[in-house]
Known about the structure:
alpha/beta, Dihydrofolate Reductase, subunit A, 29% helix
Amino acid sequence: xxxxxxxxxxxxxxxxxxxxxxxxxxxVDEEIFDFGAERITKTNxxxxxxxxxxxxxxxxxxxxxxxxxxxxxxxxxxxxKSTHKVVLSNTLNxxxxxxxxxxxNNDVDAIRELKKNTTGEILLFGSPSTxxxxxxxxxxxxxxxxxxxxxxxEGIPVFKNRKQKQPLKLLQTHVFSSGVVCLRHELKY
Length: 189
C-alpha cells in the first residue's frame, strides 16, 4: 500500500497560507528546490486539491519552454508532465487534463483505493483543505513541513479541526541557509 506524504510550507505559527491564501512569505531558492527535487523525483503520483492543482496547471505544463527557464523549472516541468496527477474536486472535468484523475472531494473510499493500487508513494502538494480532510480520515502517513522563519498571526492552518492528539515520530530535519527548516515526521495512528 502506498503512503501519502504531505509536502507543504508552513509559517512558524503553523499557517500554510495567509488569510486570503497568500503565499508571498514562502522562501524558495535553489538549495530548497534541489533538496525537494531529490524527494519529488522518487515518486510518480501527485495529489492536489483543486485550487493548488489549477495553480500548478497554469504554470508547469509550459514552464520549461519559457525563455530563461531555470534548472528547477526544466526539471520540475518534466516531472510534472510525466507524473500521474490526482485531483480532489467536485467541479473539474477530468477529460480537460492529461495524465490526471479527478476524484470527488469527499470520496474517502477512492483515496483508500488510490493508496491500495499505487506503486510507490503519493505526494500531496500544499492543498491545506485537502490535507485537513485526509488527516481527519488518518490517510496521511508522513509530512515534510518546510517551516519558514516568519510569523503570520493568522491564515489557513496546516492542521485544523484536530479533535485528538496526533502522535508524530521525527524522521529527519534539514536546516537551509535561508533559515527554512524541513521537518519530516511519520504520523502515528
